[in-house]
Amino acid sequence: MDLKEIQTLIKFVSESGVDEVDIEKKDFKISIRKAAPVVQAAPQQIVHASLPAPAPAAQPVAKAPEAPAPAPVVADKLVTINSPMIGTFYRSSSPDKPSFVSVGDEVKAGSVVCIVEAMKLFNEIESEISGRIVKILVDNATPVEYDQPLFLVEPN
Asked: Are the C-beta atoms of 130 and 101 separated by less than 8 Å?
């Protein structure tokens, strides 16, 4: 089973009502389970609920969103590169090698931007667009979910 087939299978699980798929062939076995997005939504709700609560800190908290306030306008122009699978995100091919991309780097469609390790397979993730890396959204060697944003790219 190649990467495209695995991605298609993951997309099927995420879009259908199926919660789990197990496939077993001669030398290959894969299990895909749908993750509950509630875990990610809860911390966001807590953060938003706690921001307006402290009255004395309202000005510093208001100043913190002011910096991101222009970002949503720019964010409309930004494109995300998402993880095509569940696994562990790596910025380079090995710890002693330089990162594939850094903030400010120009990428072309088809260029490798990171690796996602899934079931001891290291899958090179390629950019689908050409542009400049604006932000790296995931720390090195951390787990990522299917369709989780990894990079913000300003298209050319």
From this structure: no
Task: Provide the mean pLDDT of the chain.
Answer: 77
For 70-156, give the CATH class: mainly beta
Q: CA-based diameter of the chain, in Å?
A: 64
Predicted structure pTM score: 0.53
Between 46 and 97, the more confident residue is: 97
Q: Where are the domains of the chain?
A: 70-156
